[in-house]
Amino acid sequence: MERSGGGDPQETLRLLWRSSQARSGRGRPPKVSLDKIVAAAMELADRDGLETMTMDRVAAALDVGTMTLYTHVPGKTELVDLMLDAAWQELDLVSTSDNWRQQVELYAHRAVESHKRHPWLRMASTTRPPLGPGLFARENFLIAALSTTGLSPSDVGAATGAIVTFVESAAAVQAEHAHGERLSGQSDDDWWAARQVFWETIFDPERYSAIAQTWDQGGFDRSAAEAAAKAFDLGLRALLDGIAAMAQPN
Predict the structure, then answer these.
(1) What is the C-alpha to C-alpha distance for residues 79 and 75, in angstroms, rounded to an integer?
(2) Which SUPFAM superfamilies does the entry link to (predicted)?
(3) Pairing between strand 124-125 and 2-3?
(4) Could you give the CA distance from residue 99 to residue 145 in angstroms, rounded to a whole number?
(5) Which of 5, 73, 179, 192 is deepest in the core (most CB within 10 A)?
(6) How high is the pLDDT of residue 21?
(7) Per residue in 135-178, pLDDT tens?
(8) What pTM value is reported for the model?
(9) Three-state DSSP class for 124?
(10) Residue ranges for the chain with pLDDT beneath 70
């Protein structure tokens, strides 16, 4: 598990907001740019996982020496922050709707797609997030949407946090199913089929009667990926219903 926000604060903020001074016209132009470094790192992490993304491998992908990267970014810690914020910027949260619920749903579904493109997102803890433009664009979008509900400013902040926590966690679960199947080469159906003996010889329907009854009534008649998607839709709907109920005048 990588943790964001662990690098030098001043340097990380400078990189996130691209606030370095412009280069002079002297000398040769750099072989790579910061944006190219971030893109290459994301591509490696997308394919092989965040834990295998190293400065050496990024340099090799860009056909430059590793020391060249260090002239742009201090190390992997800061690079992960840049990758995270770049992924958040990809959400491109511009809505044509003035309905707060539709705006939140737009964010939710784009977050799901982002996790599918970048399954490594689930491997980065953002409890101390990189304070970049991607993060602030997401937060501002959600706060602006929820501010139209009539909730108090305190509840708007809490609701924003609840939405982000649920959406990012549930989106990661959905991405995990697809990514796990790709890495293992084994489908969820094949994985469960290999464990059919559990249901035949170990599972006790009397001891776990609620599970057995729900099973008999078709409550589990879907694949693991389908179940995760349904859980996401149900959870999001319930969360937004709850926010809507809180916003109603007494």
Answers:
(1) 6
(2) Homeodomain-like, Tetracyclin repressor-like, C-terminal domain
(3) parallel
(4) 8
(5) 73
(6) 46
(7) 999 999 999 999 999 999 999 999 999 999 999 999 999 888 77
(8) 0.88
(9) strand
(10) 20-29, 249-250
Q: What one-character-per-residue DSSP string does 172-225 give? A: HHHHHHHHHHHHHS--HHHHHHTTHHIIIII--TTTTHHHHHHHHTTTT-S-HH
Q: How many CA atoms lie within 13 A of 175 on its CB side?
A: 23
| Tokens linked to 27 | 């000398």
Question: Dihedral angle at the C-alpha atoms of 156, 162, 167, 173, nearest 10 degrees?
Answer: 180
Q: Are 53 and 45 within 8 A, CB to CB?
A: yes
The token pair that represents 16 in the structure block: 């996130």
Nearest Cα residue to 115 out of 171, 60, 76, 154: 171
Contacts of 187 (CB under 8 A, 6+ apart): 181
Return the domain boundaries, the chain: 2-86, 93-247
Residues 6+ apart with CB under 8 A from 145: 95, 100, 103, 104
pLDDT of residue 97: 87
Strand partners, 2: 124
d(CA 155, CA 243) in angstroms, rounded, equals: 9
Please, are residues 99 and 158 in contact by the beta-carbon 8 Å criterion?
A: no
Q: What is the DSSP letter of 50?
A: G
CATH number for the segment(s) 2-86: 1.10.10.60
pLDDT for 26 equals 54
